[in-house]
């Protein structure tokens, strides 16, 4: 299987069409976590990944005006509001029928629904986004921490584990951005207060997040999570402490990425780093854009064509065509391609 391997061959529509044609989106709008190429089948539908997909498809529609992207985004948004949402629990499960709910997933879904609402003004999307934000306020707070995972239906905290996604940490700030977005729309000061608390906690603790593990592969995974922290700083980007953390964090991530990439590289880390450089006004490092572009597949098989792979190990492509990798890489490369015409809007950040 060939890859484009060059930024010159990238188009946003090639990635958008992968969402439409690959089968990664189910007819009901739910989006699978990834396509497993060695097994020739999709993983299960994920509510978080569906939320990311809404955000990407809205972005692609706004950049291209292709109505197919808007239609696909609304299928996914309505899957979330009409099938995935649990009004009895005021939460989104991790997956349909799952016995757990994640704080991080909730914020990603809320931001996806807000993207759909901004594009259509359909109150259904705003109403469930607000309800999600309220559920996050009510159930995921414990003292000065944001609880990462709750058991369902009890909504009791799951005991913390050593892996980053099962413990509190600075990465949660990206999902806390949903609170800031909801504050801007509703004027509810509780949303603003909780974002500010999450921001203060993340700024106190973020330096200890990296490297966080002795194994290089796990450090690469933590780079992905640390970039979520940097993205979560964007509502406060004009504050000196946030700008300083952005620029220091960008340099730290870039250093670890250069060191670890020959052994294990994640496409989303390249993409997130590129997006942060653009949002922070930091110079784009030579080779990072082309490295992200090299993960895009060029194939006669529609399950691959236009999608981006998750990563490489020792230079070999791993067997995952990934919606989040595709969304992050496609947005990053599209933003980078706009050069002097670039106008950044943090609300469009996938």
CATH topology: Glycosyltransferase
- N-to-C series of helices and strands: EHEEHHEHHEEEHHHHEHHEEEEH
CATH architecture assignment: Alpha/alpha barrel
The radius of gyration over CA amounts to 19 Å
Total count of strands: 12
Helix percent reads: 40-55%
The main sheet orders its strands as 3-2-12
Name the shape in a single word: globular
Number of helices: 12
| End-to-end distance | 28 Å
**Which class do the helix and strand fractions yield?**
mainly alpha
* Main sheet characteristics: 3 strands, antiparallel
What is the number of independent domains?
A: 1
The CATH first-level class comes to Mainly Alpha
Strand content: 5-15%
**Averaged pLDDT:** 95
Question: What ranges have pLDDT less than 50 throughout 5 or more consecutive residues?
Answer: none
Could you give a quick summary of the protein structure above?
The chain has 350 residues and is mostly helical.
Write out key terms for the chains shown.
3-stranded antiparallel β-sheet; 350 residues; 12 helices; mainly alpha; Glycosyltransferase; 12 strands
Task: Describe the 3D structure.
- By secondary structure, the protein is mostly helical.
- It has one domain: Glycosyltransferase (Alpha/alpha barrel), CATH 1.50.10.
- Helices cover 53% and strands 8% of the residues.
- It is built from 12 helices and 12 strands.
- Strands 3-2-12 form a 3-stranded antiparallel sheet, covered by helices on one side. A 3-stranded antiparallel sheet has the order 8-10-11. The chain has a two-stranded antiparallel sheet with strand order 1-9.
- A hairpin with a 2-residue loop joins strand 10 (311-313) and strand 11.
- Helix 1 (12-21) runs antiparallel to helix 12, helix 4 (103-120) packs parallel to helix 6 and helix 6 (173-186) runs antiparallel to helix 7 (189-205).
- It starts with a strand and ends in a 13-residue tail after the last helix.
- The model has no long low-confidence stretch (mean pLDDT 95).
């Amino acid at each position: 299987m060939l890859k484009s391997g060059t930024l010159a061959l990238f188009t946003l529509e090639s990635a958008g069409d992968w969402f439409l044609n690959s089968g990664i989106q189910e007819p009901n709008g739910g989006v699978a976590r990834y396509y497993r190429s060695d097994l020739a089948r999709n993983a299960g539908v994920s509510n978080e990944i569906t939320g990311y997909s809404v955000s990407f498809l809205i972005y692609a529609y706004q950049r291209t005006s292709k109505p197919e992207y808007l239609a696909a985004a609304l299928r996914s948004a309505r899957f979330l509001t009409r099938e995935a949402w649990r009004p009895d629990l005021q939460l989104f499960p991790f997956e349909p029928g799952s016995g757990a709910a994640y704080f991080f997933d909730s914020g990603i879904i809320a931001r996806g629904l807000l993207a759909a609402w901004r594009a259509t003004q359909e109150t259904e999307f705003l109403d469930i986004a607000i309800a999600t934000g309220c559920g996050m306020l009510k159930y995921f707070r414990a003292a000065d921490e944001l609880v990462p995972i709750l058991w369902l239906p009890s909504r009791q905290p799951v005991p913390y584990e050593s892996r980053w996604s099962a413990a509190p940490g600075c990465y949660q700030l990206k999902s806390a951005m949903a609170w800031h977005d909801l504050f801007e729309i509703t004027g509810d000061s509780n949303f603003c207060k909780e974002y500010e608390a999450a921001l203060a906690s993340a700024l106190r603790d973020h330096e200890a997040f990296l490297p966080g593990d002795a194994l290089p592969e796990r450090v690469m995974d933590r780079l992905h999570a640390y970039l979520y922290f940097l993205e979560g700083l964007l509502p406060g980007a004009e504050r000196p402490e946030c700008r300083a953390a952005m620029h220091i964090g960008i340099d730290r991530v870039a250093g670890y990425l250069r060191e670890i990439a020959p052994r294990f590289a994640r496409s989303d880390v390249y993409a997130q780093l590129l997006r942060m450089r653009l949002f922070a006004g930091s110079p784009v490092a030579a080779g990072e854009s082309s490295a992200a572009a090299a993960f895009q597949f060029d194939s006669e098989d529609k399950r691959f064509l236009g999608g981006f792979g998750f990563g490489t190990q020792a230079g070999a492509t791993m067997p995952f065509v990934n919606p989040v990798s595709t969304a992050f890489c496609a947005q990053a490369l599209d933003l980078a391609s706009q050069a002097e015409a670039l106008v950044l809007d943090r609300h469009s950040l996938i």
